[in-house]
Structures are given as C-alpha cells and as structure tokens.
Specification:
Number of helices of chain A: 23
Strand order of the largest sheet of chain B: 7-8-9-4-10-11
Low-confidence stretches of chain B: 251-257
Mean pLDDT of chain B: 87
Order of helices and strands of chain B: EEEEHEEHEHHHHEHEHEEHH
CATH superfamily of the largest domain in chain A: MetI-like
Distance between the termini of chain B: 38 Å
Radius of gyration of chain A: 29 Å
Shape of chain B: globular
Number of strands of chain B: 11
CATH topology of the largest domain in chain A: MetI-like fold
Strand order of the largest sheet of chain A: 2-1-3-11-4-12
Number of domains of chain A: 4
Radius of gyration of chain B: 18 Å
Strand content of chain B: 15-25%
CATH architecture of the largest domain in chain A: Orthogonal Bundle
Oligomer: heterodimer
Helix content of chain B: 25-40%
Shape of chain A: globular
Largest interface: A-B, 24 and 33 residues
Helix content of chain A: 55-70%
Structural class of chain A: alpha/beta
C-alpha cells in the first residue's frame, strides 16, 4: 500500500490547499458607514423559483444602472430564510409579502419603504377556490372538506383565509378534515384542479376584475375550471422593506434605491421588467401602518394555533406517569430484581410492550384515510411519467455541484478530524485529560445531525453553497475523528514500542510507528466519508444548500413531477456509481 | 565510547500489586563487550527487566546507569534520546511492514537528525550510508528496497537487528530474539549480536529460552525466577543443577529444553 497511500495522501493535501484557496476568496467584510460593495435584493418564491430568479436578476440590473452600484438578486427557499437573511444583513432590501413582514417585525425593527402596485392598486385579495362543478356553495359546506393552504406563513394562502373563517365563528384548525401545504400558489390550485383536495386558499384579483391565482396558473392547463367561494377584503400588497438599523446607517442609499424603484415602475421598459415579478405595475411609498389588517390576522392565527396545540398533544399527566414508571423499572431492574432473572426479563418485556402500544398511538395512523394517501401517491407517480429529459443539463450541473460541495466539505474537515483523532487516541496522546476532551468533542459534534448543522448555518449565512459545505465539514470533523481514534487504538503496538526504543520523540513515534500503519485506514475512511458526504450534500440541498437536493425541492414545490423523475434518477445513479468507485478505490488502498 | 551498564535495586510493581521484578538489594553490572543471557521460565520477569532497564516500562524503584548517563533520572526528550542509546531487538521484530528494509533501519537515525528532518524522513547522506552498511552487515545487501512484509521471519529479524545497530547504541537488549526463528536462523542472529558487542565493545543482554544458545554464545548467564535473580555466573559454570534451580520442576520434565 505504502506507495499508493503516499500518493493518495499528497493528492488529498493538494486538493485541500486548492479548496481552501477557493473558499478564502469570497469573504467580504462591510463597514457600516460606507457604501456596501454590492446591494442585495432578497425575494421569496411565490412561484417557480428559477423563473423568479431570472426576473429578479433583470430588476437588479435595471436598479444597478440607476444607483450606480452592483446589485445582486437572491431568491431564498422560504420566508423564514429571507427574514433571517435580512436580520444578518446579507439581504439589504427585501421584497416581502405581508406575513413575513409581520414575522420580521417580531424579530427586529423593520422599515417599510414601498408597497407594490398590482393592476393599479396597492392591495390584493385572498380567496378560497373550489372546482366549478363541485357541490360547495357556501362556506359552511366546506365543513369536513380537504384544503390546500400555500404555506403556514403565506398571507393570502393561509393567514387571511383562516382569519376570515375565525371571524365567521369556525375554528380553522378543526373545520377541515384534511389540510396540506402545497408550498406555492400554483401547486395549490393544481391540487384542486386534479381533485387531490376540495379547496385551496390563494391570492385573487380585485372582485371587480375577477380571477386570481386559479385563472393565472391554470390558463394553459387542461382540466376543470375553478371558482372562488369566499373573497377577502383588500390586503396590502407586497412591501419593499429594510432592516431599520441598516436604513439608519445608510439613509442616502435607502432613499436613492426607493426613488429608483418607483422610477422603474414609471418607465415603460421598467414596467415590462416588473410584470414578470408577480405581475407588478410599480411601487408607491408606504409605511408600516398600512399593514395593520395583516398584523391582526397574524395575531388571530397565533391564538388559534395556541388553542389547538393545547388540545392536540398528549395529556401531560400520562407522560409524567409513564416516564416515572420507566424510571422505576430501570431502578428495580438494576438493583433488587437482578436476583430473579426470570422476573426481570418478564418485567422488561411487558414494559417494552406497553411502551410500544403507547408509542403506536402517537403515530396516529389514519385508519379511514389510509388508502386515500395511496391514491395521492398514485397521482404523484402518474405525474412523474414520462420523465422530462429537457432538464437533463440542469440536473447534471446540479449533480456535479453536489459532488464539488461534498469534496470541499470533506477535504476541509480531514486535517481537523485527523488532529482530534490523534489527540483522542490512547496510543498517541499520553495525557488523559486531552484525550477525554477530544473524545467529548467528537461525540458532541457527531450527535448533532448534519441537517441540524445545515439549518443553523443556513439561517446564519442565508441559503447557498457555503452553509452546505460548512455543515458537511463541521459534521465530518466529529464523525471522522471518532472513526480515526477508534482505528488508531486497534493498531499493532509493536512498531510504536520499537520507535520509542530507538529514541524517537512522541511526534516521531507517531510519524514512524503509528502513521505507516494508519495511512491506509486514513485514506479508505476519508474516501468512505466523502461518499457519505455526497449523500449528505443531496439532503442538505433540501434545507437550502445548493445542488441537486435544492433542485428536487424546487421541482417538488412547483409540482413539476416529470422533472422530479430526472432528479431522482440522477441521485440513484450518483449514489450507486459512487458506491462502486469508492469500494474499488478502498480495496486498492488496503 | 564503551560504557558499563548498572542496574541497582530495580523493582517493578504492577498496578494489581504483584511484583514483576524485584531486584531490591541486588546490583547487576554489565561490562562493555560482555554478552549476557537471561534465562528463566515464562513469567519470571525477563522481558520486564529489559523494558525497565531501557525505561520502555517505568520501574517502580531503583536506578539504571549507562556509562555516565543516569537513565532513571531523565524526562521528556532527554529520556527519548537516552533510550536511543540502547538498541532493542523484539521477539516479534516490530517492523513497519509497509516500509522497505532500508526505511525501517533509517528510523533509527531519527535521534541523530534535526526534529523536522526526523519527522519528514529527510535523511542525510551519512545516515543512509550507515543504514546500508548495517543491512549489509546482517547479510541483507540484496534486500534494501524489499518491503518488510515481503521478507521471511529470519530476514525481518535481521532487519530489526540492523535497526538496532544503526542506532550506534551503547548497549543492546534483545527480548527473545530467536523465539520465532528456526535453530539455524537463531544461530545467525545470536552470532551477529555477539560479534557486534565485541567489536563495538558494548554490553549485550538477551532473553533466551534455549540453554544451549546461552552456553554457546554468551559469556555470562543470569537466571531469574519469580522476579528475582537466582543465578549469576559465567556461562561455563551453568550446570544442569543450576538449570533445574532456575526452571524448577519444569526442567526435570524436560519442558524448558
């Protein structure tokens, strides 16, 4: 192995250096008094994220020409991410629908600059829509029906319609037999058209004009038409807002960007751009007082959720009684009952049985709705065929990106994993305190799941490739470090003793007695970790890190199941190919 | 150059309280060029004695001096360097199996080069030349580049002997160097150790089980039993009665021979 191992090692070192260089570049620090290097506009996806990105890029370019500064547009995965990005000042100007605005106001002071004008009005409406020929005529008829909301933070797709129901005396949490979140307005109306649900809550045009999400998104889709069953009063349109403290420290910039956006809406070509952004006509100046209705609706919803929650979960008493029983059983099992093994075993089994039955009730298996779920999966599967191979290039690029993220994340973590692994190994580190510290670190780091690290980093840095790489790297240090020290301790102590005997210092003992034995394990375990990290990078895409997982999420939300097929096929091929290649490489190494 | 090795009052108590070796009140002096066999049944403390004397294991009490060097007073890097004054040959060779014979010998030079060179394996010309000479001396002139794992048991043990020589040691300890070898190879290895000890005038201590070897290759025999020295004299005075004394009833049953 020695030669192969050494070459592999040098190659890994090289890749690490290159990776670190690549990582080091995009770091920028902004000074609060100065004009930022670039202005970032944040958008949340109301429809297909990629279409939105293209339209947002065009707006950013137009704005850049007017304010003479680089402007970048970023589309976040969901409202919460956008709000977090505002808070961390990764996004300077956010295009906020009303409910994330209220969410942001709860977290930090927000200044509303402009309100969006659509069809000549700075407000819009929300509607509950059903199939044209359905039996539902009045709101009361919807009792026990199934509904597709857009998103738990969507104003027109959740907050306002629930507020309307609550005003009519219905408890929105129990009014419907089945509720689901479609993710986006187009997906919600498609679900009604396909009969997957009875009713959807989506945005609507002013009642005088008629129409809304259901006419816009279903215009070119064959199938049943939809009609509104319930319309809301006018809801203020989307806001352009900034974090108040940032606006204070950049007053001139905020003013010039506001003026530029209004001006864009007044120019003919600018309006052409804005049309593509959620059918926007322009902007008018606004302030936070305009959004009082939304704030009330939001408040009402939180209260109704709080009420629902208290009834929905287990009776606290049973939880405490059961936990006390388990504790008692553990105490008895450990002590007195050891003398009667038969009784102990019987007690353990019966306790296990009770725990199982009790836990099964927590799963809430939908007894009468079970087959209905299967029918919906059938809808999904039919939509997946035939695969839309037109997205092949896009999927391929995302796959390659995923591999690159995994490579950088893994390689960046390896030196640190090696360090903690060495510090934790008994045959390397003589000081027990250091060993215990390193071990504790490994176990702590390992126990925080990759997805959790990813979620934390995404909320800190905003969605993008970096949080994904960071999450992989952080998780890899602990898990690979643990694998390293466990392997180190199984090595033959002979060469180690021989190196001590020839007069080597501790570092030299590690170099000549430990390392030559460890190197093949080091290479094969690092390779295997890379393989695991590619799979991890796929899943991390779902929480907003870039790559193929992100693409999957985008297609799923847009109900583009034929494209989803291509992504899933790519993931399967990727994982299988990687498994085969890595297995062969590892065999060669050891 | 030539140094005398002295062990005084050396004891080693295991964590469970039993005595591994107990030389309290005893003093052993090994003259330069003298080859000593340590005999005794398994568990008599022979290996423990050698490891305590080179401080691979910490002795509980007592002192070890090699020439001017008081080994038992040293710590840290000074201790590492002092250990390097003693060439140690192990029963299981303890080579790095994925390295060549030459690389295995070169690590013995780590003590003689700068820390960084020792860590990176940037050996000096003189070190490489010395390592080659040591391999030639043990009869492995053709095998410098062979990987340790490709060598036979006898060849591996000769690489280990060459490694000990390359330390330019002030003393050589060998812990049952022939236990894994056939009789002819055993004779070769013991001959190498004896020749080196006499030529460089350093004390050589070997643990052996074969009384025949002790009589033929060694000047002096020390018999150990239950951690105590029970015999100490020229190998010519090692009578069958003395062997029985060392090995107890085992010798009568012929097990140790």
């Amino acid at each position: 192995m020695s030669r192969v191992g050494r070459w592999a090692l040098w190659a890994l070192c090289l890749v690490w250096c290159v990776a670190l260089r690549a990582e080091a570049q995009p770091q920028g620090v902004e000074a609060p008094e100065e004009i930022p290097r670039e202005i970032v506009l944040g958008f949340n996806p109301a429809e297909n994220a990629q279409t939105l990105q293209r339209a947002a890029d065009a707006l950013a370019e137009a704005l850049s020409e007017r304010v003479h500064l680089p402007v970048r547009a970023t589309v976040t995965l969901d409202y919460t991410t956008l709000v977090e990005a505002m808070r961390s000042e990764h996004v300077h100007f956010a295009w906020l629908t009303p409910s994330p605005l209220v969410l942001a106001e709860r977290l930090f002071p927000v200044r509303v600059l402009l309100t969006q004008v659509r069809r000549g009005q700075p407000s819009y409406y929300s509607a509950l829509v059903v199939q044209e020929g359905s039996r539902f005529q009045r709101v009361e008829d919807l009792q026990g029906a199934s509904i597709a909301w857009v998103d738990p933070t969507s104003t027109s797709g959740y907050i306002i319609p629930r507020y309307l129901l609550a005003q009519r005396g219905f408890d929105p949490s129990t009014f419907f037999a089945r509720q689901l979140f479609a993710g986006q307005h187009d997906a919600a109306v498609i679900a009604v058209q396909r009969g997957q649900v009875d009713v959807a809550a989506v945005w609507a045009n002013p009642p005088a004009e008629g129409g809304g999400a259901w006419t816009r998104y279903l215009e070119h889709r064959p199938g049943p038409r939809l009609r509104p069953l319930l319309m809301s009063p006018p809801v203020p349109s989307d806001a352009i807002a900034t974090k108040a403290t940032w606006a204070q420290s950049h007053p001139r910039l905020v003013r010039s960007v506001s003026e530029a956006l209004v001006a864009i809406g007044q120019s003919a070509e600018g309006r052409g751009l804005l049309r593509r952004l959620n059918a926007t006509d322009g902007f008018v100046p606004a302030d936070t007082a305009h959004y009082e209705l939304v704030r009330r609706a939001f408040q009402s919803n939180r209260e109704s959720h709080a009420r629902a929650r208290s009834g929905r979960f287990e009776d606290p008493k049973t939880v405490y009684i059961f936990s006390a029983l388990v504790l008692l059983a553990a105490v008895l099992g450990a002590g007195a009952m050891r003398r009667w093994p038969g009784a102990q075993r019987a007690a353990a089994w019966s306790l296990f049985g009770v725990a199982l039955v009790w836990s099964a009730s927590a799963a809430r298996i939908p007894a009468h709705d079970f087959w209905r779920g299967w029918r919906d999966i059938g809808h999904f599967l039919r939509g997946m065929l035939p695969p839309d191979t037109g997205v092949g290039a896009e999927v391929f690029e995302a796959t390659v990106l995923t591999i690159r993220l995994a490579l950088v994340g893994t390689v960046a973590a390896i030196p640190f994993a090696l360090l903690v692994g060495l510090l934790a190994a008994e045959n390397v580190m003589p000081l027990a305190m250091v060993r215990r510290g390193a071990r504790f670190f490994c176990n702590l780091d390992r126990s925080i799941d990759l997805l959790i690290v990813g979620l934390i980093l995404v909320s800190a840095y905003g969605p993008g490739a970096f949080p994904g790489v960071g999450a992989l790297a952080i998780h890899t240090v602990g898990s690979l470090g643990k694998q390293f020290y466990e392997t180190l301790e199984t090595l033959d102590p002979g060469p180690v003793e021989a190196m001590r005997a020839v007069g080597c210092t501790q570092t030299q003992v590690v170099r000549w007695g430990v390392w030559p034995q460890f190197a093949p394990h080091f290479v094969s375990q690092s390779l295997f970790r890379f393989e695991l990290n590619v799979r991890g990078a796929v899943v991390l895409g779902l929480v907003g890190a870039q790559g193929i997982g992100f693409l999957l999420q985008t297609y799923m939300r847009g109900a583009e199941y034929a494209k989803v097929t291509v992504v899933i096929a790519a993931i399967v091929v990727l994982v299988m190919a990687l498994d085969a290649i890595s297995a062969r490489l590892r065999k060669n190494v050891s | 150059m030539s140094a005398r090795l002295t062990l005084r009052d050396l004891t080693r108590r295991w964590p469970d309280g039993t005595l591994g070796i107990d030389l309290s009140g005893q003093s052993l002096v090994f003259e330069p060029g003298e080859m000593t066999a340590i005999l005794g049944p398994s568990g008599a403390g022979k290996s423990t004695l050698l490891r305590c004397a080179s401080r691979l294991i910490e002795p509980s009490t007592g002192e070890v001096t090699l020439g001017e060097l008081a080994l038992t007073c040293l710590k840290g890097r000074a201790l590492s360097r002092a250990r390097g004054q003693i060439g140690f040959v192990f029963q299981q060779f303890n080579l790095v199996r994925s390295y060549s014979a030459l690389d295995n010998v070169l690590v013995a030079r780590a003590r003689h080069v700068s820390w960084a060179r020792g860590l990176l394996g940037l050996w000096r010309e003189v070190d490489v030349a010395l390592a080659r000479r040591c391999l030639d001396e043990v009869g492995l002139a053709e095998k410098h580049q062979s990987l340790a794992r490709e060598l036979s048991g006898g060849q591996q043990q000769r690489v280990a002997v060459a490694r000990a020589f390359a330390q330019e040691p002030q003393a050589i300890f060998a812990d049952e160097p022939t236990a894994s070898l056939d009789p002819q190879l055993s004779a070769t290895v013991l001959g190498l150790l004896r020749r080196y000890g006499q030529r460089e005038s350093v004390p050589v201590l070997i643990n052996v089980h074969t009384i025949e070897h002790a009589r033929r290759y060694c000047d002096r025999v020390i018999g150990m039993r239950a951690g105590r020295v029970v015999f100490d004299g020229p190998s010519s005075t090692l009578s069958d009665a003395a062997v029985n004394e060392i090995y107890g009833r085992q010798a009568e049953e012929g097990a140790a021979l």
